[in-house]
Amino acid sequence: MPYICPICQNPLMQQLSSKSYYCPKNHHFDLAKEGYLNLLPAQHKKSKEPGDSRAMMHARRNFLEAGFYQPMAEALANIINTHQPTAKPMHILDVGCGEGYYCRQIEAFADHPESLDLHGLDIAKNAIFAAAKKQQNARFVVASSKSMPYADQYFDLLLKVYAPANELEISRLIKAGGLLLIVTPGPRHLWQLKEFIYHDVKDHAVDVPLPADFTQIESQRISFKIHPDKDQRMALLQMTPFAWRANAEIQNNIQRSKHLEIETDFILTLAVRS
Ligand SMILES: C[S@@+](CC[C@H](N)C(=O)[O-])C[C@H]1O[C@@H](n2cnc3c(N)ncnc32)[C@H](O)[C@@H]1O
Ligand SMILES: [Zn+2]
After folding, report:
1. Most exposed: 60, 138, 139, 221, by fewest CB within 10 Å?
2. Residue 130 belongs to a domain with what CATH number?
3. 103 annotated to bind ligand
4. Would you list the DSSP string of 199-228?
C-alpha cells in the first residue's frame, strides 16, 4: 500500500466494502467523491486554507491549460519515458502538484500510460479537488510536503515543480536508484515581466541544491518565448513570487503593453538516489 497514517505512521488499508482508509489504530480517512484523500489532520494545519488560494489555482489552471508551458511539460514526460524502471508500474509523485497540470501532461505524453502509477500531493484542498476531478487515473492527496503520508521508498520518481519540500522526506520516499526531477527557474525566466517591476532586473541564481544522498545525472535548460494576452499576463503575474510588488499602475502597464513577448527559462535537474 502506498499510504501511511498521518497521525501514527502505520500503514493505511482500504476497506473493500467502503470508501474509507483505516490504520491498525483505527484512525480513518474517507475517499472524497472526486477520488482524493484528505490526509492533512486538522492539528497539522497552520491556517484554515493552507497553500495557494482558489483564485491563484484558477489563474494557474487557465494559464497552463492555454499551453504556454507545454514544451517544458513535454520535456518532463520525455525524461520519464526514457527512465522507465524494469519493474512496472513506475510509481511517480508530483510534490506540490497544484491543480495537477503536470500529472495530466505526463500521462498525455507517456509512451506507456498504462504502466504509470501517478500520485499528486498538495496542501491546498481546492487544488487537489480540481486535480482529482480532471484526472481519474491519478491518485491525489491533501497533505503537507513536510510530512508526506506515503510508505518508505515507495516511489521510482519524485517530481518537484516550483514547490517546497522537505529533503529528509524526499530521501525517505524515493527508492535506492530512484530519481528526483526538479524544475527551477533559469536566469532569464520571465525577464520582460520583471522589467515592469524592478529597475534593475537581476539574473536568477541557478544553483539547484540536492539532498545529501542524491547525485545529479542530467541537467536540461529549456527556454522559449510566449505571447500571452492581457488576461493571461495577469494570470502569469499571479503565479510568480513577485506578484505582490506589482501595484495597480504596474499591472496596468503590463496589460496595455503592445506585442509583449516574454522569455521563459527552465532548468530541469535529474538526480539519482544512492
Ligand atoms: C508555485 S505552486 C506550483 C504548483 C505546480 N507544481 C505547478 O507548477 O503548477 C506551489 C504549490 O505548492 C503548494 N504548497 C505550498 N506549501 C506546501 C506544503 N507545505 N506542502 C505541500 N504543498 C505546498 C501550493 O499550494 C501550490 O499549489
Ligand atoms: Zn493511525
Report:
1. 221
2. 3.40.50.150
3. no
4. SS--PPP------TTEEEEEEEEEEEEE--
